[in-house]
Amino acid sequence: MPIRVPGGEKIITDKRLTAIRVISTLADKVVGGDEGLKEKVKAAMVSKDARFAESDVVIAHLRAGNGRGPIDPHELYKLVKKDELTIEQFLDCVTVQKKPLEKFLAGGVIDKLCGTIPNPAPILVTEFKEGVDFEVGDVDDALAGLIKQSIRTKAA
């Protein structure tokens, strides 16, 4: 859903937003996902039976993933039935996913059960403006500045 600024709403200009949106887009569409660069490099390393890879300035280590998944609440509840865990202890350890619960309870009931988070941190959502052509040069300085602040670079 495109971001729409309501009339009369205060709006500031901050050029860092361009860098944020570009980096987010690159992270989502280029680096991440099943077809992203990261998965392609991992696939190349696996196909060549290599645990390490390098570029001119970066070294990578393909480490074993963590095979431990979430605990099945049904299995945990079996410990309650065996009196190895109290129902209070069980309830202190489990959380409820709202989406599956929608099969069994109406949305209004779920809403009443939902807790609230006091003073939740605001979420920043960015997108490219509709009808504005992106110029690669517009972000060069912003990205260069972020790189200099974040990564050790050679002196110019």
Radius of gyration: 24 Å
Q: Note the run of SSEs as H and E.
A: HHEEHHHHH
Span between N and C termini?
Answer: 43 Å
User: Order of strands across the widest beta sheet?
Assistant: 1-2
The rough form would be described as: flat
How would you characterize the largest beta sheet?
A: 2 strands, antiparallel
Number of helices: 7
Low-confidence stretches: none
Percentage of residues in helical conformation:
40-55%
pLDDT averaged residue by residue: 86
Characteristic key phrases:
156 residues; mainly alpha; 2 strands; 44% helix; flat
Strand and helix layout:
Blueprint: H1 16-31, H2 37-47, E1 52-54, E2 59-61, H3 73-81, H4 87-93, H5 98-101, H6 107-113, H7 137-150
Antiparallel strand pairs: 1-2
Helix pairs in contact: 1-7
Short description:
The chain has helices at 16-31, 37-47, 73-81, 87-93, 98-101, 107-113, 137-150; strands at residues 52-54, 59-61. With 156 residues, it is mostly helical. Among the domains are: 11-65, no CATH class; 73-113, no CATH class.
